[in-house]
Amino acid sequence: MSPFRLAADYLLYRARAFKLHGVHSPFIFSLYHHVLRHTGYFPAYSRVETLRNRLLKEKRTLQVTDLGAGSKNINFRKRRIKDIARTSAKPMKYGQLLFRLVNHFQPETIFELGTSLGITTAYLGEARRQAATYTFEGCPNIAGVARQNFKALGLKHITLIEGNLDDTLEKQLQQTARLDFVFFDGNHRYAPTMRYFKSCLTRHHEHSVFVLDDIYWSAEMKRAWKEIKQHPQVMQTVDLFFVGLVFFRSSQPKEHFTLSF
C-alpha cells in the first residue's frame, strides 16, 4: 500500500477513535485503562530493548529464505541482521503492548505466527515465563539468530518451529488442546491470513485473545480484518490501527471499538 493511502487510513482512524471516556463496555473500559494506556515500567522492557539495540548494530549478513506471501515459492537473498531488525520487528510501543496483554491475561499457551529475530517473541516470553510459547519462522538462518536471542535472555520456555507455516501450524495445532493467546504476524495477504485465523479458531475458547498485526497494511489485510470482525464466533474487536484485538466473550454483546492508541 502506498504511504499516502496508509496516511489517509490513519487520519480516518484518528477521526473514528474513542478515548477512555467514550467507552461504555466494562470489559473494554478496564482493558483500555489498565492495559492499553498503561504507562508504568516493567524491567523486561529494558532487557528486550537492549537486545533490539544490539541487533540494530549487527552488521553480519544472513542468507534469507523467503517463502513468499503464503506460497511454496522460495526466494533467496542476503540481508544484514541490522536491516532485518529495523524493518521486521514491531516497534517498541507495540512490543510492550503485547507484553502488557500477556501479563494481564496470563495465558497458558501462546502462538506467534512469524518470529523474525525474536524481538516481539521476547516480549511475549518475558511477560509469561510459565506459558508454553510456540513461535513459527520459515527461514532457518533467521531462526538460528532468534534461538541465540532467546538463550541470551534465558527464555527456555519458548519453542521455535521452523518451516513453511502452511505445514507447521496445522501440525502443531494437532498437538495443542487450546489456544489462549495468538499473535498473527506471519503473512500480510488475505487468503493466508484467513486460513491461519480459521485454523487457530479451532482451538480458541471463551477467553482467548487473538492479535492481528498490520490490519491496514494493504487492501487484502483490510479485507481480512473486516471479515474477521463479521465472523460469527468473534464477539468483540478493538481497532488500534497498527494492530487489531479479537475477543470471543459470548456473555457480552457483539461490539467493535476503534480506540485511540
Q: How many helices does DSSP assign?
A: 10
Spatial ordering of strands, largest sheet = 5-4-3-6-7-9-8-10
Radius of gyration: 18 Å
Question: How much beta, percentage-wise?
Answer: 15-25%
Order of helices and strands: HHHEEHHEHEHEHEHEHEEE
Count of β-strands: 10
Overall 3D shape: globular
Helices and strands: which structural class? Answer: alpha/beta
pLDDT below 50 for ≥5 consecutive residues: which ranges? Answer: 69-74
Major β-sheet profile: 8 strands, mixed
The percentage helix is: 40-55%
Summarize model confidence as the mean pLDDT.
Answer: 92
End-to-end separation: 22 Å
Would you mind describing this structure in some detail?
The relative contact order is 0.15. The chain is globular. Helix 9 links the parallel strand 6 and strand 7. 45% of the residues lie in helices and 19% in strands. By secondary structure, it is of the alpha/beta class. It contains 10 helices and 10 strands.
What are the SSEs and their pairings?
Blueprint: H1 3-16, H2 26-36, H3 43-55, E1 61-66, E2 75-80, H4 81-88, H5 92-105, E3 109-113, H6 119-127, E4 132-137, H7 140-153, E5 158-162, H8 165-174, E6 181-184, H9 190-201, E7 209-213, H10 219-230, E8 236-239, E9 243-247, E10 255-258
Parallel strand pairs: 3-4, 3-6, 4-5, 6-7, 8-10
Antiparallel strand pairs: 1-2, 7-9, 8-9
